[in-house]
Amino acid sequence: MPLMPYDQALEQLVQQLIPTIKTEYVPILQAQGRVLAEAVVTQHDAPNFDNSAMDGYAICGVDEVNWQLVDYVAAGDSTLNIHLNVGQAVRVFTGSAIPQGTHAVIAQEDVDVIENCISSRVDVQPQQHIRFQAEEFAQGSILIAAQQQLNATHIGIIASQGLSEVLCYQPLKVSIFSSGNELQVLGQALLENQIYDSNRYMLLALLAQKSFLKVTDGGVLPDQLDTIQQQLAQAAQDSDVILISGGASVGDKDFTKQALENLGEMQHWKLAIKPGKPFAWGSIHSDTQHSKVFILPGNPVACWVTYLVMTLPALNMMAGIDLARALPKKVLAQAQLEMSKTQSRLQFLRGNVEVNAGQLHAHIHALQSSAMLANCGMTNALVIIPQGETVTFGQNIQIMYLNSI
Ligand code: AMP
Ligand code: MG
User: How many angstroms separate the alpha carbon of residue 332 from the centre of ligand 1?
Assistant: First the structure.
C-alpha cells in the first residue's frame, strides 16, 4: 500500500467509523468526561422568577424623591401578598423575589435610610438591578447539545436543572496489547537485549484520561503469528476497539498486520507522516461484534504521535463525540526554527509553545528520533511541518497544543 497523506488518511478513517448508539443513564457525579447522548433541555425558565441582583431596596416609582419602607423580603421568602404602590419600597437581598409593582432596585450603598423612609443618592433607572424571569433562557431551550464530552461546568448546569442523571453513550470497550519478543514487563529484571515495554503503559495512561472508555489490558504478545492471532481473535469477541503496538513494519518478525489480515481486513497501512509511518488500521467482524483495530508503531514516539493524531480522534468519534470536537485542534504559532531542507513526509516535531509578548512562539527539541521518548515529557506541542515545505524563522506554522487535545 502507498504512503497516504495524513489529512486523507484521517478523513478516510473517519468515514469508516461506526459511532456507538448504545446509551445509558449516568449519575451526574460520574458523568464528567462522558459523552452526552441526548441534549440537556431546560426544565424551567432561568431565572425562574424576577429577582434582585443586589442587596438593596425594591422601589415603585423611579421619579420619586423618597420611598416608604413597607416590607422585608429575604431570598426564598414569599412575595405573594406584597404589592408595591408608587412611593413605596421593600427591603430586598440578592436573589430575593421582586414584589409586584417594583420598577427598580436601588443598591443599599446608594441609599440613605431615615427611620422608615429611604432616599437615593443616585439617579434611578427603570428596571435597574433586576434579573428578569427567562432573561438567560426560557423553559425548553437546549442547554447542552448532545455529542459533547461533559466537563465540570456542564455538571453544574445539569444540576441547576434539578437533574441527577443524564443520558450518555455507553463507554467504548478497548483492549490494548504490546508486541515484541524483546519487551519486558515492569517488576522483572531486564534479560540480555531486552527493553521495558513503555508503549502499553503510556497508552494505558492516555486511555485512563478518557472516562468514555472501558479499558482491558491484554499485556505483551510475543512475535508469533499464531499467538497474536489467537489473542486478537479473543479480544475481538468483546472489544469495540483493539490497540496493538509493534510489529507493524516490514521486518521478518512483524506479524501484527498479518494477524489482522487473517482475522478480518486491514483497511490501510502506512502514513506519509514522521514519526508514525508504520500505522495501520482495519477491523475484525464477528456475528455479535465489530471491532476496529489500530496497529501503532513500536517506536515509542511514533506510537504516541499516532495515538494523538489518528487513534484518539477515532476513539472520540466512535464514543459519540461530534466530528468538530473529535478532531485535533491546530493553531498558528511563530516558528522559532529554520528548516531549509524539504521533507518527503509531513512532520510532527516535538516542541514547546510559549507566549511571548502576546504571541505564540513554537520551539522544537533537538532530538527528533522516533525511538527517543524522553523529551516527550518536556513537550507541550507538536509542531507541524507540511511535506515538501521549508520553514523560515518567524513565519507562522501550525501546531497542535497538547493540553487542548
Ligand atoms: P516494531 O514496530 O515491532 O518493529 O518495533 C520498532 C521499535 O520499537 C523497536 O526498536 C522495538 O524494540 C520498539 N518497541 C516496540 N514495542 C515497544 C514497546 N511496547 N515499548 C517500547 N519500545 C517498543
Ligand atoms: Mg517488534
Answer: 33
* C-alpha 307 – ligand 1 centre gap (Å): 15
What average pLDDT does the segment 274-293 reach? 95
Letter for the amino acid at 316? N
Number of alpha carbons in the 13 Å side-chain half-sphere of residue 35? 25
Q: Which ligand is nearest to the CA of 253?
A: 2
Q: Give the pLDDT of residue 87.
A: 98
pLDDT digits (tens, 9 = 90+) for 196-210: 999 999 999 999 999
pLDDT tens digits, residue range 70-83? 999 999 999 999 99
Determine the pLDDT at residue 405.
40
Residue 403: its pLDDT value, please?
A: 76
Distance of CA 154 from the midpoint of ligand 1 (Å)? 40
Which residue minimizes the CA distance to atom 4 of ligand 1? 247
| 131-153 CB burial, b ≥16 within 10 A, e <16 | bebbeeeeeeeebbebbbbbeee
Closest Cα to atom 15 of ligand 1: 298
Q: What is the DSSP annotation of 141-202?
A: -EEE-SSSB--HHHHHHHHHTT-SEEEEEPPEEEEEEEE-TTEE-TTS---TT-EE--HHHH
Ligand 1 in reach of 276 Cβ (< 6 A): no
Instruction: Calculate how far, in angstroms, residue 255's C-alpha sits from the geometric centre of ligand 1.
Output: 13
> Is the distance from CB of 312 to CB of 276 less than 8 angstroms?
no
Do 241 and 257 meet the contact criterion of CB atoms below 8 Å apart?
no
Strand partners, 120: 111
- For the CA of 297, the closest atom of ligand 1 is 2
Q: Quote the pLDDT of residue 2.
A: 85
Q: Is 223 in the pocket of ligand 1 (CB under 6 A)?
A: no
pTM over 0.85: yes
- What's the rounded Cα separation, in Å, for the pair 51 and 93? 9
The cell for 208 is 485512563
Out of 196, 203, 299, 373, give the residue to mutate to test ligand 1, the one with the largest number of ligand atoms within 8 Å of its CB.
299
pLDDT band at 395 (very low <50, low <70, confident <90, very high): very high
Q: What is the CA radius of gyration of the chain?
A: 30
Distance between CA 52 and CA 66 in Å, rounded?
A: 19
Find out whether the beta carbon of 368 lies less than 6 Å from any atom of ligand 1. no
Which pLDDT belongs to residue 74?
98
